[in-house]
């Protein structure tokens, strides 16, 4: 069997669309469709059902995908091992990384300064976006690695835990008393709250909490974007819920009040994501290791301030 057929099949399976898979594989949809028909003839069974809603894998197709995954991983790792062998200890090449906005705002500046100083031969691109977007960009092959939330079902991505972040309420006024006083959002009175819109995972969660009474808010304003959120509350008595990592640079400042949230209990699990058919390069592994150290520093810094249960 031609290995290209396996790659074509896996692309259609993961994208659930001949058009998107063709774009990913840099072929025209008609050619890709013909290759899948050739594969089905070789296997003696259909691997996809073509419907008006898109492409759905058959039982045989799902099983074939499971069998193809270790083959694709082995080939990809073999190619990367050979690249690393030729490259030696020289860290170079291109690297495209995806980062959530809060993480970028909290630690990216120092991280990039260290990385670019140590590895000047790496052509680095950083994309800051919502977790859902960076996940899609890893799936499409545009990003080599990303820090994001747990990917959706059938994403086909390799992931491993990176960091558990907690949430704080921030405001330009002492709406909950002294700095770093723990806060119960269900007990607040006249809380004016800035939240992301529903298209953001955290925004949808917060709005559900408000509807369910776990968060009591007298007024709600929706702002997408971490910088916009900070600016909307900096000089007002409005509050905003954000990830603790996003306010790292404000911990020693007096112009922003930060309150660790203990009720409702909220945390966000972040993962390192990459496509299993494209193993991490030496440059990507170096970046991930450096990012992990920075995330550990964040945990240590917060442990000195507040211990979440």
UniProtKB/TrEMBL annotation:
Keywords for the protein's UniProt record, in alphabetical order: DNA-binding, Transcription, Transcription regulation
GO cellular component: protein-DNA complex
PROSITE patterns: HTH_LYSR
Gene source species: Afipia massiliensis
Name recorded for this polypeptide: DNA-binding transcriptional LysR family regulator
Record family assignment: Belongs to the LysR transcriptional regulatory family.
UniProt keyword Manganese, yes or no: no
Top-level division of the source organism's lineage: Bacteria
InterPro entries on file: LysR_HTH_N (IPR000847), LysR_subst-bd (IPR005119), WH-like_DNA-bd_sf (IPR036388), WH_DNA-bd_sf (IPR036390)
């Amino acid at each position: 069997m031609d290995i290209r057929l396996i790659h074509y099949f896996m692309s259609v399976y993961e994208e659930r669309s001949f058009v998107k898979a063709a774009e990913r594989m840099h072929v025209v949809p008609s050619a890709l469709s013909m290759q899948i028909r050739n594969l089905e003839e070789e296997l003696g069974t259909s691997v996809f059902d073509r419907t008006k809603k898109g492409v759905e894998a058959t039982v045989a197709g799902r099983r074939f995908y499971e069998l193809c995954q270790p083959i694709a991983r082995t080939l990809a790792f073999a190619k990367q091992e050979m690249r690393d062998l030729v490259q030696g200890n020289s860290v170079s090449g291109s690297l495209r990384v995806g980062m959530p906005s809060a993480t970028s705002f909290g630690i990216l500046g120092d991280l990039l300064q260290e990385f670019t100083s140590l590895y000047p031969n790496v052509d680095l691109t950083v994309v800051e976006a919502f977790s859902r977007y960076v996940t899609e960009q890893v799936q499409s092959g545009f990003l080599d690695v990303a820090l994001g939330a747990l990917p959706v079902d059938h994403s086909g991505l390799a992931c491993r835990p990176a960091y558990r972040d907690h949430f704080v309420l921030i405001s330009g006024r002492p709406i909950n008393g002294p700095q770093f006083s723990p806060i119960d959002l269900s007990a607040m009175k006249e809380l004016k709250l800035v939240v992301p819109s529903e298209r953001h995972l955290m925004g949808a969660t917060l709005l559900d909490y408000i509807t369910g009474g776990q968060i009591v808010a007298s007024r709600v304003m929706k702002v997408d974007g971490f910088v916009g959120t900070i600016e909307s509350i900096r000089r007002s008595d409005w509050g905003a819920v954000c990830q603790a990592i996003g306010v790292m640079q404000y911990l020693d400042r007096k112009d922003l009040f930060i309150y660790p949230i203990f009720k409702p209990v909220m945390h966000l699990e972040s993962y390192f994501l990459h496509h299993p058919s494209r193993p991490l390069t030496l440059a990507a592994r170096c970046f991930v290791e450096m990012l992990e150290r920075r995330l550990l520093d964040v945990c240590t810094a917060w442990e000195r301030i507040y211990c979440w249960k």
